[in-house]
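ok, trying the design again with the full structure, not the truncated one.
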């Protein structure tokens, strides 16, 4: 069997060879606990410190601002729940297109007296600033909007959102999991109090991430114990994964321009090919991360198309990868005002630096042929 063509990099990326290389000593001989006082512990601690510097540098922050977590999900939960525990119950604002690991903890705050407000998105996939202005007329404690959407790839006006939220003294957070490694990310320029990152979206290992924090605010930790991560996240550090995360951040920043040029050219070709075949390409008029195409064909079910393409050797996603077991139409597309029937047809392609022109062309041909075949089958069944 041929190796499948992997076009699902927003779900996860293959680990980079140099990242694995950096991790291996800490999976083998250097297995010390970073809290141990002996030499092996000191080696592990230095490696974690170096990774902290690499992660901080990637987003223009200071190492002391980085709290390592088990990934993006934990970092998002830590900010939302950790901030809410320090504030009196009031309004929490999230965007309707945010990832469930932001919207679900925000929804959970309702049980402790908070009001949840979901911001609308425009047809282009951009969060509506006028809706934010309306939302902020009510006392607001927390505002969280993602930097790049995982489905459409559309970039969000986080700096403008943060400026407005700060004016009413709300604590502002952004999930930058899909942005880091694809576009420049600068903590200070965004003006947020908290920024979520995840290693496995940028050729690092699964199970490592970070919450980068403005040190002027204090969150209540989710996990209590040995006081690791300056008391913000107890639990023995996953040294190999943290080392891999640091190496991946350094690599991603060094390759940012090349990544952009390579993926953007392929993505634009794919957009053009699919649109010419009659597909709707979502968020196409907005600024997007350069590797993502999200499309649907009228009358074609997205799940079916993904399964057929998988049989032909192409790995792509229908709807959000993290909720791919659900048959509900994508919440992001519904929030953008896309009709549920069309939203049910959504398929996401996310390219990586190893994606090639040949792969993209073969994929576009396969989509067009499969859509034609599925339409013929439907016509015969009527
Ligand atoms: N935020 C976004 C936008 C994502 O796309 C994902 C994963 O798909 C996450 C958060 C969760 O990150 P992790 O897998 O590191 O928990």
């Amino acid at each position: 069997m041929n190796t499948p063509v992997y076009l699902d990099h927003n779900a996860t990326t293959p680990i980079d060879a140099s990242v694995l290389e950096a991790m291996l000593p800490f999976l083998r001989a250097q297995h010390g606990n970073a809290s141990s006082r002996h030499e092996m512990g000191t080696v592990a601690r230095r490696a974690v410190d170096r990774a902290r510097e690499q992660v901080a540098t990637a987003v223009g922050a200071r190492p002391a601002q980085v709290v390592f977590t088990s990934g993006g999900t934990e970092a998002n939960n830590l900010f939302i729940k950790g901030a809410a525990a320090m504030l009196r119950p009031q309004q929490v604002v999230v965007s309707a297109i945010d990832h469930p690991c932001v919207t679900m903890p925000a929804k959970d705050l309702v049980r402790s007296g908070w009001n949840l407000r979901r911001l609308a998105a425009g047809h282009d996939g951009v969060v509506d600033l006028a809706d934010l202005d309306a939302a902020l007329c009510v006392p607001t404690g927390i505002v969280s909007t993602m930097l790049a959407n995982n489905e459409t790839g559309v970039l969000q006006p986080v700096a403008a959102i943060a400026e407005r939220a700060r004016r009413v003294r709300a604590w502002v957070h952004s999930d930058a999991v899909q942005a880091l490694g694809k576009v420049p990310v600068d903590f200070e320029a965004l003006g947020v109090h908290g920024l979520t990152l995840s290693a496995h979206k940028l050729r690092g290992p699964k199970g490592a991430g970070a919450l980068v924090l403005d040190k002027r605010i204090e969150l209540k930790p989710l996990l209590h114990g040995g006081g690791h991560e300056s008391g913000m996240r107890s639990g023995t550090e996953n040294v190999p994964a943290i080392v891999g995360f640091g190496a991946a951040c350094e690599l991603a920043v060094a390759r940012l321009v090349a990544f952009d040029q390579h993926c953007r050219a392929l993505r634009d070709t794919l957009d053009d090919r699919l649109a010419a075949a009659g597909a709707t390409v979502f968020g196409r008029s907005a600024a997007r991360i350069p590797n993502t195409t999200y499309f649907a064909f009228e009358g074609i079910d997205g799940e079916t198309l993904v399964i057929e393409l998988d049989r032909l050797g192409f790995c792509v996603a229908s709807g959000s990868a993290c909720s791919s077991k659900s048959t509900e139409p994508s919440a992001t597309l519904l929030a953008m005002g896309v009709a549920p029937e069309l939203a049910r047809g959504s398929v996401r392609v996310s390219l990586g630096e190893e994606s090639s022109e040949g792969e993209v062309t073969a994929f576009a041909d396969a989509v067009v042929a499969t859509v034609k075949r599925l339409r013929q089958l439907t016509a015969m069944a009527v």
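Keeping the full-length input from now on. The two ends are 36 Å apart (CA to CA).
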